[in-house]
Design brief:
This protein has 356 residues and is an alpha/beta fold. 29% of the residues lie in helices and 25% in strands. Helix 1 packs across helix 8 and helix 3 packs parallel to helix 4 (158-167). It starts with 8 loop residues before the first strand and ends with a strand.
Length: 356
Amino acid sequence: MSARAPRRGIVTLTPAPAIDLTYRVEALELGDVNRALEVTTELSGKGVNVARAVALSPVPVAAVLALGAQGEALAREGGFEHLLAGVPDTGRTRVNTTLLDASGTTTKVNESPVAVEPALWGRIAARTERELDRLDAEWLVVSGSIPALAGSGEPVPFLDVVHRAADRGVRVAVDTAGASLRRVVDDLAPVALLKPNTHELAELTGRELRTIGDVADAAFRLHDAGCDIVYVSMGSDGALAVSASGVLRAHAPATVVNTAGAGDASLAGFLVGALGEGAGPPAAGVGLGAGLLGAASPRRPTALPDVAAGLLLAASWGAHAVMQPTTLLSSITAAPTATLDLDPDPTTPLREPATP
C-alpha cells in the first residue's frame, strides 16, 4: 500500500467578517475636518486576510465566512472571490475604519461584531467541515473577533468547530483576543498553534513584557498549559515562537506605512513556511520539524511542521505587510529577507514593551 500524501491545504474561518474602509491623510487633526488623499474599501476580517496572503503561495486555501452582497461585490472587484467559501448572509457586515497619516501612524475604529443567528452559524460550521474535507486540510485557522450567538447572550460555539477539526486530525491555529482568547486558553487540548501579539499576551498572562525573555517566559506558560506552538507577533521587534524545541526569534527590516493586517500576513507566512512552501530554504541547517511536537496522538497528524522555516517567512511577510497602505497583502515578490536567532538573548529590550 502506498503512503498517504501529506496534507497541504489551509482553511480559514472568520466568525466576524468586516468591510475595511481606509483613509490616507497627510496629518490627522482631531476635532477638525480632514481631507483624505486616498480612500480604499476591501472585504476583510482576519481569516480573509490570512487566506489572501496564503493564496500568494502554492498552498491550497479557502476562507469560510458569512458573505453579504457588498462583501461579494468587493471580492469580485478584488479578483479573489474564488478563495471564498461564502455562506449567504442577508444581514449587514460591520465596517472597520483605518486612518493613516504620512508619519506612518495607524488609527483604527473597529465596529463590534454583528450577532449571528443560530441557523446561520450552523451553516458556517458545516461549510467549514466541508472545506476541510475538500482541501484535505492540514490547518484550520480560526481568526478574529468572536461574535455573539443571537438570542443567547453567549459567543457562537466556535470551540465546537475547533474540537471537531482536531478530532479529524486537522491542526488548529487560533488568533483571537480578549474574553475569546481566555476561553481558548481554558481549553487548549485541541489547539496546535496560538498566535497572540505582545499586548494580548501581556493581558492574558497578567505580566509586563519589557524584554525578549519576558515574552518567551509568558509564551512558555501557554505552551506548558498544552499548546504545541505559541507564536507571538511583536511588531517592530519581529516574531517569536516557543515550542518543545525552545525559543526562536526572527526579524526583518521594514519602513512602516500601515500596521493593519500585518499580524494576519505574518500568520499566513508562518503556516506556509511551516508546510515547506516558502520561496526556498530559510537558512542552512535550521529545520526543526523532527521531534517538535513529541509523539503523535489521534488528534495530531504525524508530519511535523518546521517552526524555523515558518517563523522566517512570518517575519518576512509581516514586515512586507506594514510597508503597504492597504490591509490585504497583495504581493510577496519584494518581501524582505528575515534573520533567525536560534536562542535569542533574553535580556534584549523590546522596542515596543507591553503591559497588562
